[in-house]
Write a structure and sequence with these properties.
Radius of gyration: 18 Å
Strand content: 35-45%
Number of helices: 3
Structural class: mainly beta
Shape: globular
Distance between the termini: 29 Å
Length: 278
């Protein structure tokens, strides 16, 4: 196996960026989901309710990020003056909030009053690890530092979709951080730990998929229910702890350092495969 591609999403639910090399940190890939858009009460916004966020492009730079939306642009510096209590699902975080001029522009772009917040290295968001009493640090990602998918699993899903006479899905619909090639389809269901280059990565649990898989990753426009219908037929969880449709796997890195496309990947430990409902 090898690393086929790497991806980060600098703003949670914004458009992804493709990388050839970066660094893996305990919270995930460097620069992944360190920024987040929140509503007037500090609760996070995503494409689930605001699909136009797919058109929000954030490019990291030394001083902060550069934003683009429908042809307009804005440079944003790292905020360091004011903090705000914000919420990601059921997790509260005290984050840095950008100044009013930035938030006015972003509010105009998205059509409602919003604020942009930032998580630096000193801001800790801890959440419990699945099936254990341990906790991990995570960015503004939904639940875990990394989402890993495989090319052969996508090929298997698209083979089913092709039989239905519908167009194939791109991997970008599933918003992975690390895409691996060279593994049999759905083999990731039985991984417990893998090694990516020099890094040990614990495989935690499959990723339950949502309506975002039905949206065009560049525009946010609905593409119909093809993705969820196919996953419902092939990948419905057989374990009541996760009741939805599955694609990809959540993971936790145990070391930090460089990672690059082409890095070798090997399975260190296996476990009984996650059950799929018949």
């Amino acid at each position: 196996m090898r690393v086929e591609s790497l991806h980060i999403y600098p703003i949670k639910s914004g458009r992804g960026i493709d990388l050839t090399q970066t660094e893996i940190h305990l919270r995930g890939l460097m620069g992944d989901r360190r920024w987040m858009v929140v509503g007037a009460e500090g609760r996070f916004l995503t494409q689930r309710t605001h699909p136009q966020m797919a058109r929000l492009i954030a490019t990291p730079n030394k001083g902060g990020i550069s934003l683009e939306f429908n042809g307009a642009s804005l440079d944003v510096s790292f905020p360091d003056q004011t903090r705000l209590d914000v919420t990601v699902w059921r997790c509260d975080v005290n984050a840095w909030v950008c100044d009013a001029s930035v938030n006015r522009v972003l509010s105009d772009w998205l059509g409602e009053a919003v604020k942009l917040v930032y998580m630096d290295e000193d801001i800790v968001r801890a959440r419990p690890l699945f099936e254990t009493q341990d906790s991990i640090e995570v960015s503004f990602a939904d639940g875990y530092p990394l989402l890993i998918t495989t090319t052969d699993s996508l090929a298997a899903l698209n083979a089913y979709i092709d039989q239905k006479g519908e167009p194939a899905l791109p991997m970008s619909r599933f918003r992975p951080n690390i895409v691996l090639s060279g593994a049999p389809a759905w083999d990731e269901d039985g991984w417990a730990q893998i090694e990516i280059g020099a890094h040990r990565v614990d495989i935690v649990k499959p990723c339950e998929r949502c309506v975002m898989t039905t949206l065009d990753p560049s525009s946010g426009e609905s593409q119909g229910q093809t993705a969820l219908d196919a996953l419902r037929a092939l990948r419905k969880s057989g374990d009541s702890r996760i009741k939805g449709m599955l694609f990809g796997t959540n993971a936790v890195p145990r070391t930090s350092g460089p990672i690059a496309v082409g890095d070798p990947v090997k399975i260190i430990e296996r476990r009984a495969p996650w059950p799929i409902a018949s």
